[in-house]
Fold these 2 entries.
Entry 1:
Amino acid sequence: MKGLLERAQAYDKSDPLASHQSAFCLPPSIVYLDGNSLGPVSANAKHFLNECVEQQWQTDLIGSWNTHQWITMPQRVGASLAPLLGAEPHELISCDSISVNLFKLLSHIVNSCSERDTLLVQRGNFPTDNYVAQGLAQLTSGRITLKEVDTADLSRHLDTRVAAVVMSQVNYKTGERYDIADICEHAHRNGALVLCDLAHSAGVLKLDLHQLKVDFAVGCGYKFLNGGPGAPGFIYVAERHHNHLQPALTGWMGHRSPFDFEADYHPAHGVTGLLTGTPPILSMAALLGALKDFKGCAMENLEAKSHALGDFFLTALAELGIANQLTLITPTEHARRGAQLSFEHPEAYGLCQALIEAGVIGDFRAPRILRFGFSPLFLSFTNVLHAAEMLQRILASQSYRDAKYTERKAVT
Amino acid sequence: MKGLLERAQAYDKSDPLASHQSAFCLPPSIVYLDGNSLGPVSANAKHFLNECVEQQWQTDLIGSWNTHQWITMPQRVGASLAPLLGAEPHELISCDSISVNLFKLLSHIVNSCSERDTLLVQRGNFPTDNYVAQGLAQLTSGRITLKEVDTADLSRHLDTRVAAVVMSQVNYKTGERYDIADICEHAHRNGALVLCDLAHSAGVLKLDLHQLKVDFAVGCGYKFLNGGPGAPGFIYVAERHHNHLQPALTGWMGHRSPFDFEADYHPAHGVTGLLTGTPPILSMAALLGALKDFKGCAMENLEAKSHALGDFFLTALAELGIANQLTLITPTEHARRGAQLSFEHPEAYGLCQALIEAGVIGDFRAPRILRFGFSPLFLSFTNVLHAAEMLQRILASQSYRDAKYTERKAVT
């Protein structure tokens, strides 16, 4: 069998996405395995942002709402996302954060389901998702109840009282991917809706929201979509729900005619009715630029490469003799994992810090999880081999036990 | 009496804020009277944004949450705003949009007022404010009712059923400024709270939120604060309310320990508990830079110059013999007006477009209002005179009746 380096080089040579790497502005000395937390900047993202500042804001000023179509930017970002999610362009809009967008969709569900009183939420989901459901339920003065259950038990709890299931497709900590199609089938058979958080899916997994029959989805722009820190999120609403949206959280940009300044709220048709206030145009310009980097990338190639990078990382750990020093907590089966691999290690924090100092950037989740993201547009197989080798070196030297690595920083 | 130009030059010479004009990157050929809608970019805003992209996002990547303190950016923007609002730094936070922030505060009010069932909202307020109140009331299934009354009647409707008054300090259309101190006094005497929208106040009026006894306030970053298109908004909560905040709309960034990823929501103390999702860091960096331009500016100087610019504009219109061709709908008394002057004209739309083509940028509000904003940091008295002279020329030539000006664009 060929050596690891030879194999890495061969994979890189036959990688259909290899040409995309040069679009990103990553420091040459690092291997960035944290695209699942904050994607890196690309030349397109910088170019769009720069145009937005220098030409649009600086020179054309307020007129840019017309001349540079700032007014349709949420829809244009949505349309750029559509091919990555298997959606129609008019089913998506970009705005606000996941928290805020979840609140809008959940409040619509609550406003439109007079007969059902339960929201079924996934235990272990990203905290925001359940906080939002908690806050909304409290506001209804007891009309709506939350039921929090393990993902494996969601189907079994679907009864005629459940208005909707709120869940993530991929678990942020473990990287496990759930069978959304199955949940949708069970939910719909019981007259319930499905609201799916795609934070760890968008831009990296092959999605077909139509085929999956997902009703509503949210996601963020700053992870695998590389839209920049805190980039605006997105909302997907299947077309069949476009006529009946009744969010409780609204704003003038979602009005059917915002510049008539009407006293009462009449939503615009479809997803546009889910806009609230004036969107953060600068952040949105960077996201629009970042999405250009996905042009012409088949979703199946993105997912296949991400899995191939992860598989090669696992192979390298095994062949370097360190696989048994870390406990993989992500399922290895492709259909059951997202684009990250998570490992447990008793000294995960120090290990993560030592890796970062060595130029291999992953992240840590308390109390002992190391997460590595395999973002397909900017990573090479050679990068991944380098990361595995650095991990081997650090484990061998036990440098990760050094106080300079184990002392906690505020955030990771 | 000296001529208009001589007076303009003399005012410019003695203007204590004149040195700030060079901080802004305005095209030399225009007079920008639309800072009440979108403030222009400054060198500081560009510098902060550029640093955020080139050094922080590009080079330091995910580590910037720690090393560049992205995690405290909402608080740092809040602290920069404090001297402009007469607030303590820890009473302010920057995040989301006015719509979303209003929803958080109103949901707190609704969650914490078990005995009162009415929200008193101001007729003619900026539409978003009342849409948000409408959406929230609907969600409570009848527990909360809205009462919409004219500003002059607010005090009279304050009774023991009113939980809070929701109003703007300055009317977005007419530029009229209301007596917040008086409303606060009446409200508090009746056990009600006051939530004030400062969209057209922040950065341009002398505010002392403490002295005014305002309970809660919101505002945006993109008008007189010059933070960029769709810049994040802000929330003010008087310290006396910091122990009891119960917003229904929450998110992980408002949790007391976001990186513990706890299953249940426990808010951080004070205004930090009003954060929701990950904030748009790029947009917030520009806003933080823009606020640097206010450093050392006394609020009374900002307000005084804004009023002086407006007064000089009115003088110029009178002396140029065109005052009677426009109907001023803003009170002239300083205490009763914000930083804009609004005029009615039967052909306001064409007039606005003709002015824009001549390099004088104001804006139009249907059906016949022309708005001119007198932003004190970047405008000179000579600018204002030039605007009045262009208006005179356009009115005299009647060029504003030309079809190229009267044909409506999508947005103004």
Note: The longest strand of chain A covers residues 162-168.
Entry 2:
Amino acid sequence: MDQNLNAEAVTLTKTFCAGLAATRLGDLSVAALRAARRGVLDWIGCALAGSGHKTITTLLDVLQETSGRPQATVLGRNLRLGLLDAPLANGQMGHVLDYDDTHMGGVVLHTSSPVLGALFALAERAPVSGADFMLAYAMGFEAGVRSGRTAPGHHKGGWHLTGTLGSIAAGAAAGKLLRLDPQRLAYAMGIAATQAGGLQQNRGTMCKSFHAGKAAANGVLAALLAERGFDSTQEIIEGEKGFCRTYSDVAEPERLTEDFGNGWLIETNGHKPYACGVVLHPLIDAVIAIRDRQAIDPAKVDEIGLRVHPLVLSITGVREPATGLQSKFSMLHAAAAALIDGAAGVAQFSDAKATDPTIAALRRKVKPVADEKLRRDEAYACIAVGKERHEIHIAHATGTADNPMSDKQIEGKFLANAAPVIGADRARRAVDWVGALEQRADMHELIALVA
Amino acid sequence: MDQNLNAEAVTLTKTFCAGLAATRLGDLSVAALRAARRGVLDWIGCALAGSGHKTITTLLDVLQETSGRPQATVLGRNLRLGLLDAPLANGQMGHVLDYDDTHMGGVVLHTSSPVLGALFALAERAPVSGADFMLAYAMGFEAGVRSGRTAPGHHKGGWHLTGTLGSIAAGAAAGKLLRLDPQRLAYAMGIAATQAGGLQQNRGTMCKSFHAGKAAANGVLAALLAERGFDSTQEIIEGEKGFCRTYSDVAEPERLTEDFGNGWLIETNGHKPYACGVVLHPLIDAVIAIRDRQAIDPAKVDEIGLRVHPLVLSITGVREPATGLQSKFSMLHAAAAALIDGAAGVAQFSDAKATDPTIAALRRKVKPVADEKLRRDEAYACIAVGKERHEIHIAHATGTADNPMSDKQIEGKFLANAAPVIGADRARRAVDWVGALEQRADMHELIALVA
């Protein structure tokens, strides 16, 4: 193997980075700009809702010991930490409730927690306009989702993509915000990808959202190093020992640049109406829709039959969750709690609900079946009560690209998430501020509102 | 898949951690204690020799911007950084010259840069005795090498093991130093492994040694989080989506605990006489031995024929190195420089030597052949000068378990590395101090000597 270490060489990764570097706000579509506004608002709400979680408190106990200089704001905590520490905290709090946006364009990636965790910290290093912020954010989607597409076996291999692809996305977005040239952007991607980690084995533990925080911090570090000329391979994605061949049994490197600029991936970002693993959403939609149609006494239910995509069983197979975090990966819990409460918000995945005996009893009546013919946003449910059968088919779960949440729904979700932490007035002002994001001169005004 | 999230469950990882937690200094062999002393001394020397490298200066430019509280010493730089930042710097400087110790017990792992990078920082958080430090250090070898053995396809897959296994080793060692119970040690391993990264594609770049620094920092963060009850899976190594199945095409999880306590892996640690990739060492031994036997005019050499283990070609295949870092992964460069200079130290792998036209001309005469029948510490060389043929066979390279450097050689290497940075007097005192490591009350005395 002769590695391509020649800095002058034209490589696929550098070609991609040249595209990132050349893209201007004017190149983005109206849909991309709208998606950026929605994404920023929804993510801040999720982070604020997660900011008081015991996972975050534990993390902050450590970071307050180890971090020094107050350089960047930890959302919702009236706290500032160092430039590499605040992204860890913000990235993790954005993902801790599993309530943050999800891109399903060939990969399942919670892009905003890594990317915005990184960008919000850098926006306090030097003033950043809303326009530059949105542009960097959108480029993070390009880097993360496209890198994921080069490695189709990546998720099956055991990786938590929000950790791995999230690192790459955060590094590229951070590098874009710092206006790195194509060469240094390639270094940023190389440094970010070589830090990428996150094992699916950690689903249901505090580590799952930690992956998002680490990805954000990895991205900031990568961009700051690259800015100073710290180098990496020129071929981090496509190289023989690079990302797509190491993290996946199948490699399609050319997908990194395929159709670049012909539409933007941020346009198809999805937002979650429910605070749990996205694969659960179609079945929750189904159970709630049946319940909305007619009153059902949970105590009399004989069976909740579910027909779902096979990923639901492999990702959310926890049978007896002991904690709220575990319950977010339990299809049995999601179905049972949704039928009893008619909801699947933050409250339905608390520690108390995870061990609630009524829910636990109903969980045992949930009978899931995998069906490879279903899409990932599709589900069938059949609830049996005595001789009655209540059936429904959900074609596209709420919050997916084919059935998106409305702007009004996103705003409602944000206010519900943010108001308890920063107050209704500030939450309202944040909605208005983000509504004109591309005209804002300094992101710090927004940060001050949600600190 | 029903993940085992029950905190009460007995898992392989927890059984292993129970072994780590129960081990006392008195359980270590005389050979293990000697290896610990040699390892600490050699590693400090390598870190000091690397402390002025431009890679480290670039890294420190960033860390001095982002790090705040001066909690832990950066070796050789008269600088203190935060508890998560100093390990990054020290771990990277230990490995930047590719001169640090190498364990070849089924995996190729530079254990000390991640592990000691982590432990030296924590030794400034609260006073630590030499005995406790050595014990934690030895347990780092157990965790790193044994985790590697569970994943036999790990290196072939593209990973730089010093980044991946180094994270696990550093997390376990740091957890041991903090005296975590088996449950929390398992969390520390889980948090460390879920951060593990490092791609071989980055060989020859600044990122290669960065992997070691990140591993050290990952390990400290993992242990500090675990200490406070931040949880992880109980089965990070053996789980269906855990380390050995995700990072390797072949999984042998039971090797984690196999024969635990029956001898210690630190005993077979190797120390490098040459400042470059360890697979090059047998061929360098060969070239220098021929040169020592009789005078050879490099200008008259027609060919340097080499027969080597296949890994030499796959790992050190750089043909035209442009930098010193790249030259450390060029078998052609190593053979040529060794024949001209009769040495393969730090000086032979500088930027200047990498582009020296005399060495470059001789590089083109090096003809390597892979031979699967050779061991990794074995090589044949045949130097052709006109009609003369000078041949040699190296059975075990210097510095490997079967042909170790003597204590005197390690001491000489340390003094050569350390004296230019901290002065001959301090270097001498460090040798004496480490010579009685297990009796020392506070590691901080040593840190003050080498700061």
Note: Chain B has a mean pLDDT of 95.
